Amino acid sequence: MTMTTPSQFSPDHPVPTHQRIFGARDLFSLWFSLGIGLMVLQVGAMLAPGLGLASAVLAIALGTGVGVLLLGAAGVIGSDTGLSAMGTLKLSLGSHGARLPAVLNLLQLVGWGAFEIIVMRDAASLLGARAFGEGSAWNSPMLWTLCFGALATLLAVSGPLAFVRKVLRAWGIWVLLGACLWLTWNLFAKADLAELWGRAGDGSMSLAVGFDIVIAMPLSWLPLIADYSRFARNGKHVFGGTVLGYFIGNTWLMSLGVAYTLAFAASGEVNALLLALAGAGMGIPLLLILLDESEKAFADIHSAAVSTGVLVPVKVEHLALGIGVLCTLIALLAPLAQYENFLLLIGSVFAPLFGVVLMDHYVIRRRRLPAQVGGLHWQALVAWFAGVGAYHLIAANAPELGATLPALLLAGVLHGLLSFSRGRETVQA
């Protein structure tokens, strides 16, 4: 089981030129798809009561816009270096310094992978009960957990190259576009959008907090994006495809989540929103989005395997199989709702971390490779920990400001001040 020859997905081996086949269309398809999902709709439902439609759409556009620019910039690091997301961290934090984020990333991705399987299971059970009755086998949570767990694991073992080219780009993108257009048409046909637009929210959420919730969605992909962009032909394809794809997909579907909640699911309950969506087009658009959700579980499992590959010398494909089984077991056995705060806590470390990484790559090293990678780059670690501390201070004492972006910017600036001299010690990538 140990790695005799490096896997093409090995985190520390740059992807050779002949395997860098992703163009802008591939990356647009991938990130449009990743910007769509049941959890995106549910975030829209969270924003709806407090902000109302107009303010929620503004928060969605601003949060996604800023977040996706940072996401695209992180993606370019993958194409510049050919390394995985955790592999690129060694350039900024040192080979030993990158171990801690790799462990944290593994923990969060196993959790989110299981969470995605649970989200899919619940939606599929609801659709099964609606179509075939409560007592039907199609309403079995265990059946759907095993089905979606197996599908996500199979996709993760096959890897991103096969999935993007053979599924997403060939036909998946058109299926998703059709589902989004169908849900949009249904909304315009059945809801009074002018009235909804003019109706203010109840004020229980500020625009800044809404922005912070929204920006967390694209930024949650920061520890993963280089695992896919490393297969791109160049940075322009990565940046353009990622920014456009994710912005359009995420903004569109999250706004639909807000509008459907206000128009058809005023109680704000998740199941109320799912039932409203299930009523559009005989539930077919929801079913198509549900199938797309398996891609997020695939991304979580594949990237968890790549992160683990930084820690142990085992082929990524073998690790993906083991992690897929683990995620499925957790989804079957664990009451995961209680772990959501833990997952969000872990997630809070990655925004400041990538403030450090972006500053290091673009400003300090100017997109060049370091001449040598030390075991520990203390300046980067100090800046990162300071950013995490700032995040929790702001979240606790001034939540109305939003903590994510200030923590990222602070960590980046501090790293720049502490380690500018490293910028001279570089070689051409």
**Overall mean confidence score, pLDDT:** 88
Please state the overall shape, judged from the principal axes of the Cα atoms: globular
Q: Characterize the largest beta sheet: strand count, sense, and whether it forms a barrel.
A: 2 strands, antiparallel
Task: Give the CATH level 1 class of the largest domain.
Answer: Mainly Alpha
- Low confidence ranges: none
CATH fold assignment of the largest domain = Hydantoin permease
Strand content bin:
under 5%
Secondary structure tally: strands: 2
Helical residues, percent: over 70%
Please, how many domains?
A: 2
Radius of gyration: 21 Å
Features:
429 residues; Hydantoin permease; two-stranded antiparallel sheet; 17 helices; 1% strand
Give a description of the structure:
The protein has 429 residues and is mainly alpha-helical. The protein folds into two domains: 18-347, Hydantoin permease, CATH 1.10.4160.10; 348-429, no CATH class. It contains 17 helices and two strands. The protein has helices spanning 24-34, 38-81, 85-93, 99-132, 141-158, 160-190, 193-198, 207-219, 226-229, 235-264, 270-278, 284-311, 316-333, 340-347, 350-364, 378-397, 404-419; strands spanning 369-370, 426-427. A two-stranded antiparallel ribbon has the order 1-2. The longest helix has 44 residues, at 38-81. The chain is globular. The mean pLDDT is 88.
